[in-house]
Structures are given as C-alpha cells and as structure tokens.
Amino acid sequence: MVSFNEKLKAFAVELYKVDAVKFGEFKTKVGLMTPVYCDLRVLVSHPKLMETLATLLIEYLEKIKNFNLLCGVPYTALPIATVVSIKTAIPMVMRRSERNTTAPKNAIVLLNREQGGAKILENNGIKMHALLSLTELMQFLREADCIDHEMVSRVKNYLAGTQVDVKSFQKVLSEDRLKMSFLARAKLAKNPVAAELFQIMATKQTNLCVAADVTNSVDLLNLAELVEIAERHNFILFEDRKFADIGKTVELQYSKGIYKISSWAKLVTAHSLTGKGVLDAIKGSEDSDKRGVFLLAETSAAGSLITADYTKATLTLAEEYPELIAGIVCQSPLFLANPGLIQLTPGVQLESKSDSLGQQYNTPESIVLDRGADVAVVGRGITKAMEKEAAAKKYKDMLWASYSKRIEQ
C-alpha cells in the first residue's frame, strides 16, 4: 500500500512538471527577488492533478475534528474546495467581500511557505494545517533530481532572510496606505510638502504628475513666471534631478549655479546610492523648510541594476529622514505601513508597452491598482499628444477613477 508521504512526493513532482512551482529569479509584487515562485492557479487547467489534490486533502482532513463546512478562498482555492465538497458531500460556503466578525478556526493550505504566515494566523485564532511545507517540497524535488543542492541552499537562505515580523504585519493591517484616502494620509505625513500634496490631490481630485521633458527655453516658461502660476493654480513644481553625488557637490547643484533648484522646486528626486550625504546636503540648504525629497528605490527601465537589497536599504534610509522625505519612487506597493509617504511611479501610457530605450510602460489602472502608485508620472503620453489638454484630462480621469476604486475595495 502506498503511504501518504509517498503520495505527497509524487504530487510534488507533478506540481513541478506543470510549473505550479518554479525555480530561478523572480520579482515579487513588493519588489523582493525570490528564487522560488508558486503559482497554484495553473492547477485548474489540469483536472487529473486537481483530483489527486482533492484526494490528498480528503485524507488529510481526517486529522481535523469538529468542522462541518468548507470555504475556498477566491480565486485559487475555490475550484479545489468545490471538488473536495463534491467528493465528500461536505457543504461549501462562499467567502463574501464584506468583513465578518465570525472567523474560521482552521485553515488548510497546500503549501506553507514558512515565512511567518502560520504564526500570524495563530495570533488571530486560526490554526493552519499544511499538506506540504516549502522545505518538504524541496526535499521531495531534490530526491527526484528536479532541483540541485545549490537551489535548495538558495531557497533556504531566502526563507531565512524574509521572515515576516508579526508586529509589522499587524501594523500593515491597521494602516494599509493603499486603503486610505489622501485626506486621511495628509494628517500622517511628516514632510510638509507631502502633506500639502495630499491635500491638493484630494481637493483637485487628481493624482497626475506631468513630466515636461523639454530641451529648450521656448518650450518652458521662465521659472519666475512658472512659480507664480503654480501658486495661483495650486500645483507643485517638481524637479526630477535624481541627485547622486557627494554631499558638497549636491549642495552646490541644489542651491547654487544658474538653476538654483532649491529656490523654485518644492520637490526633487535623489538616489540613495551615495548614502546620507546627499540628504544632509539638501536638508542643510537655506531653502529646505518647505521642501521634500523623493528617494528612488526602483526604476521602470528594463535591465536595471537595482537589487532587492538596494531597495530595502533605500527604504531604511528614508525612515531616518522623516521630515525631509516626501515619498519613494518605485514600481511596487512598498512601505504599506507608512501611509504618510507618497509612492511616485513613472512609466504610464494608455497601453502597456516599452520604447526603444528600455522604458517599460503600464496602464493608468495597472499603475494604481497593481503597482500601488499614489502619484503617476505621465510624460510623452501628454507632451507628445496632438491634443495635449484632452490627453491630460483622459489620464487624470483614469488615474483618479483607479485611486477611488482602490480605496473602496
């Protein structure tokens, strides 16, 4: 008779064969690089494998006492729960979108990634039961020669370095910036320009930033006139300078020279590449009182050399300068538990595509709902349009509708 463990091993190999579990280099939604990627959604396309999984779950369910209902969490677990319900005649219920005060006492999962999820569920009164742990899965696949020792070591090191802190997770649940309105977040902003920008966006109902990449003075108003117009029409001037030099050089670039950026731009961008010096230089300038910095943590350029560790270090640096940092330039929904910061995301077009220089674009809806942008930067989609005003209005309406949808979900 085949043991349950042997059945699990055979099932693990099948998961690998259908690419439900993949090994290599993958980027998560929060910007971390991972050597393993689990996509159990593909199971619905493999009926025999779905039946095998249901049979394993039914056998495993015998260990759990005192339950009389099944509920598959949408969407991946929904068809799995349906098959189990049909085979066992155990009634199934649908998860509703509204929050309910009653909660399940047991959660059965196919794969425990071993990054702290079980502890979080336990703290919320839910006992987790797993068919497989990621460690067991790797052991089975190694025994079947599907992966080598080096990959096993890489995954183990990844798991050791990405454990979820329970306290931080609870803070995310209570202060998820993606669910909060700009007005609510304005009260939490420690940088005065970030607070002002939140207020402006809420009042004018727009989260559009236009990148005016011009190369001659005819295309751009003189700065004195531009500052006056900004004050009159309630918008903020932002210089995408991307400072990245030693402190003294940045100090001169920011407040001296022919441009005197600090005298007219309330917001600038900077790399964290050279460490604290760049921020100390900006903070020490005479115009630093109502000024803010966006630190660049990720880029939309294909082939970028920015790593997950660099992104993490950038976020840590931002925490050390709360009164100066207005937000983060990134492509992923980072810093969820810091709603006072603004996520600025470039690379927006009406259609997803890329240009000849490696710039990758996302749609207005995707940039806000999937990538977590608070402010979306649109350049050529507006500045190169035949009808610039109409194009700007279209982007404005689409971006604001996506933001409204996000906070209502």
From TrEMBL:
EC number, as in UniProt: 4.1.1.23
SUPFAM superfamilies: PRTase-like, Ribulose-phoshate binding barrel
Residues that bind substrate: S300, Q359, G379, R380
Gene Ontology BP, a term: 'de novo' UMP biosynthetic process
Domain Orotidine 5'-phosphate decarboxylase: residue ranges: 207-395
Keyword Lyase: yes
Domain of life: Eukaryota
Keyword set, alphabetical order: Decarboxylase, Lyase, Pyrimidine biosynthesis
Pathway: Pyrimidine metabolism; UMP biosynthesis via de novo pathway; UMP from orotate: step 2/2
Pfam families from the UniProt entry: OMPdecase
UniProt GO MF annotations: orotate phosphoribosyltransferase activity; orotidine-5'-phosphate decarboxylase activity
InterPro entries: Aldolase_TIM (IPR013785), OMPdecase (IPR014732), OMPdecase_AS (IPR018089), OMPdeCOase_dom (IPR001754), PRTase-like (IPR029057), RibuloseP-bd_barrel (IPR011060)
Active site: D240 (for ompdecase activity), K242 (for ompdecase activity), D245 (for ompdecase activity)
UniProt entry tagged with the keyword Lyase: yes
Catalytic activities: orotidine 5'-phosphate + H(+) = UMP + CO2
Family: Belongs to the OMP decarboxylase family.
PANTHER family registered for this protein in UniProt: OROTATE PHOSPHORIBOSYLTRANSFERASE, URIDINE 5'-MONOPHOSPHATE SYNTHASE
Name recorded for this polypeptide: Orotidine 5'-phosphate decarboxylase
Organism: Aromia moschata
